[in-house]
Write a structure and sequence with these properties.
Blueprint lengths: L12 E7 L4 E7 L3 H15 L7 H26 L1
Antiparallel strand pairs: 1-2
Length: about 80
């Protein structure tokens, strides 16, 4: 039962993706404390929303540029391997 805590008081399971520095790890937890649930929801909201101070169209362009950068880096790695 890695990452899973059983709590018969609340008994609510949450299937969340928790951001880490390396990858997204799937974590199942059962809430033991209502404050934990609130904090978990705040984190989910922060990671799920676009940047608020940047207009939507600018944020969308930044995302496309990042995607292009990742694509080009992959292509460079493939060329180096050949």
């Amino acid at each position: 039962m890695e990452g899973f805590m059983d709590d018969s008081k609340h008994g609510t399971e949450y299937d969340q993706y928790v951001p880490t520095t390396v990858d997204l790890n799937r974590v199942k937890v059962s809430v033991q404390d209502p404050r934990f649930l609130k904090k978990l929801e705040e984190i989910r909201i922060k990671w799920g929303q676009p940047l608020r101070k940047v207009p939507y169209n600018i944020a969308e362009l930044i995302e496309k540029i990042c995607d292009l950068d990742i694509c080009l880096r992959r292509r460079d790695e493939e060329v180096r391997r050949q």
